[in-house]
Design goal:
By secondary structure, the protein is mainly alpha-helical. The chain has helices at 2-38, 44-80, 85-116, 120-127, 129-153.
Length: 155
């Protein structure tokens, strides 16, 4: 992996940063811009349907970037040879974020199935933690991981 990094360092670092920007930026956009706008929809069925649709699109968009982030992180660790407590902190943050993402993905999928079967109350309950708890947790963790990555690189 060290040779891979030596030959493609610029591309690997770019993909790593791009992955973080898309994942964390997408969550911020969803929570700060999209979610509040959806609240102006009066029809509960339309509001929930649009919420599920938008969340699905974002989750499907960020999923490949989560894998790219992990892959490029491994190359960076080997290529740069960075070690120390900040590396473990950053790895821990991204691990918690990924587990939280998987949980949100599963909850959204369950909600979609309930919604498709006409169970609006069940669908709403299934995704109720996403906008006000799980998404903000991942946003804070993501910003912390980005800051930690900057600290690792030094300047």
């Amino acid at each position: 992996m060290k040779t891979l990094f030596e030959n493609y360092a610029l591309i690997i670092i770019f993909l790593h940063i791009l992955s973080a920007v898309i994942w964390v930026g997408g969550m911020i956009a969803l929570r700060v811009a999209v979610h509040p706008s959806l609240q102006s929809i009066d029809d509960a069925q339309i509001k929930l349907g649009k919420t599920l649709q938008i969340a699905a699109r974002l989750f499907n968009l960020v999923m490949p970037f989560i894998f790219i982030s992990l892959f490029t992180a491994l190359i960076l660790l080997k290529g740069i040879g960075v070690s120390g407590s900040l590396v473990y902190i950053k790895e821990g943050i991204w691990t918690i974020m990924t587990l939280n993402f998987v949980y949100m993905y599963i909850q959204r999928y369950k909600a979609q199935k309930l919604f498709n079967n006409g169970d609006l109350a069940g669908a709403k309950k299934s995704v109720s933690l996403l906008p006000n708890l799980l998404l903000p947790i991942n946003i804070v963790l993501g910003l912390s991981a980005i800051f930690t990555g900057i600290a690792l690189r030094g300047f």
